């Protein structure tokens, strides 16, 4: 704010899966950590910029969730990402009359070195590419989609 005087775009990409274990093995600490890491961070960041965006006549918040069905051994992460969708839709309702658009990019499995090493897939063509995810963010940040808010845009890969 001090340097530019306004915030045009917030991309809430902090978080990630860090507690991979069955539901009965998840401790309350694991649960709280995953929700704080993935949902609370998006809420706090959005809440921090909302007044400035409102006062400036609006702009864009882009959150990150997850495409596809929930996976086993990721209960808190799955719940946090579902919460991101609810957070997004609520903020979109609160922001629509003041010009704040809030949407979600929801990648499927992402073709990163760490994911490939951990999961050892046989075929990567069904995985999302980082470049495709970046293009979805650029799309949602652009004025060309000024009428889109409260939506989840899946980015699941190029395979059929």
Structure description:
It is built from four helices and four strands; from the N terminus they run E-H-E-H-E-H-H-E. It is of the alpha/beta class. The chain is globular. The termini are far apart. The model has no long low-confidence stretch (mean pLDDT 89).
Question: In which range does the helix fraction lie?
Answer: 40-55%
Number of strands: 4
Task: Identify low-pLDDT runs.
Answer: none
Shape: globular
Question: Order of SSEs, N→C?
Answer: EHEHEHHE
Strand order of the largest sheet: 1-2-3-4
How much is the average pLDDT?
Answer: 89
Please, how many domains? 1
How far apart, in Å, are the first and last alpha carbons?
Answer: 44 Å
State the helix count: 4
Label the structural class: alpha/beta
| CATH class division | Alpha Beta
> What integer value in Å does the Rg equal?
17 Å
Approximately what portion of the residues adopt beta-strand conformation? Answer: 5-15%
Major sheet size, sense and barrel closure: 4 strands, parallel
Q: Which architecture would the CATH scheme give at its second level?
A: 3-Layer(aba) Sandwich
CATH homologous superfamily identity? NAD(P)-binding Rossmann-like Domain
What is the fold-level CATH name, i.e. the topology?
A: Rossmann fold
């Amino acid at each position: 704010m001090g340097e530019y005087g306004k915030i045009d775009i917030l991309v809430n990409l902090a978080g990630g899966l860090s507690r991979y274990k069955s539901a009965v093995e998840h401790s309350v600490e694991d649960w709280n950590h995953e929700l704080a890491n993935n949902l609370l961070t998006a809420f706090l960041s959005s809440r921090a910029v909302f007044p400035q965006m409102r006062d400036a006549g609006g702009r864009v918040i882009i959150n990150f969730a997850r495409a596809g069905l929930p996976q086993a051994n990721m209960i808190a992460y799955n719940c946090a990402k579902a919460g991101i969708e609810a957070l997004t839709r609520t903020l979109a309702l609160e922001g629509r009359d003041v010009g704040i658009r809030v949407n979600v990019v929801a990648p499927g499995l992402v073709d990163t070195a760490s994911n490939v090493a951990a999961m050892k897939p046989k075929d990567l063509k069904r995985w999302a590419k980082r470049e495709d995810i970046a293009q979805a963010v650029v799309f949602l940040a652009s004025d060309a989609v000024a009428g889109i808010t409260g939506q989840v845009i899946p980015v699941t890969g190029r395979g059929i």
